[in-house]
Design a protein that fits this description.
7-stranded mixed β-sheet, 7 strands, 11 helices, about 30% helix
Length: about 350
Amino acid sequence: MKISAVDLFCGVGGLTYGLQRGGIPIAAGIDVDPSCQYPYEANNDAAFVAQDVMTLSARSLRKLFGRADYRVLVGCAPCQPFSSYSHGLSQKRDDRWSLLDAFGKLISEVKPDVVSMENVIELATQPIWRRFLTTLRQAGYNVSVHRVRCADFGVPQTRRRLVVLASLHGEIRLQRGTAATKTVRDAIGGLEQIKAGESSKRDPLHRSAELSSINLARIRASKPGGTWRDWDASIVARCHLKKTGRSFRSVYGRMKWTEPSPTITTQFYKFGTGRFGHPEQDRALSLREGAILQTFPKRYRFTRRGDVICFQNLGRLIGNAVPVKLGEAIGRSILAHLEKVDETAADRKSPKKGKKYR
């Protein structure tokens, strides 16, 4: 049984890496962002194709699969337009909404055996979501939809995601997550201590952003799991004093060692954008810590030796990634389904025991 998969919107390879660990070979990953190419190819046994999915033709996609018994198409269209962190970003101002339609169009034209799509929970409230599911069903797919707690699959985050699995060969479902809940301490408790603005000599990605004097005072006054209400009035931010800012209690917060981290966003390296303060060190998460909380291996390579470390770019790439452990669970589910399909097909082809053929 030869399986070939292609990962649309592949980014730095979180989903690809997880699928490969789950037993699904990846032929190629496709992404419009050229900065994804080095980390994708340096860590995964797959080619990177720098192309906008909006311009990808069905013919080109078929070629990427090559010869295979079963073709698998996976992807996570950019989630910012649908995420709760977008605060009402409109469809008219963001053309990324149309990427999910492009995904559906390619599925209808290429008809891969299995399809998987992962995205934010909020997508399920949008008309484009219902349109995507209708496209799959009209193309003949058996579709299952899962709202998952990533912590159930070994991801040390409170992250919740929407996972779609669809097959032309019958029912397919995501296997149940049975992993024990991982905490922040489990994930990053053993890493070398560093200060704000410093990096590890052993790992250049274990680097934290600098803090202003006021933010240094704020993090020193912060308790794990606490809020800005724990601070002295002299260091409270002006935005918190406004009526609209009083409910944002987790901003400028420290994580707890004994619990999973909050959802890792593209700005996890900033102390002031969420509960991304280290549980005990006076700094925000390092880039490596964010990657580990996304369940990338500790030595996953995001930059070449000697490259300048850009927090904004790497934060975006890491925060946008599919957690590796979730990708692995999706891969195992697809593999189990295809093994069953292939076994059934083989039984149909073989002569039945005791029956004579002339």
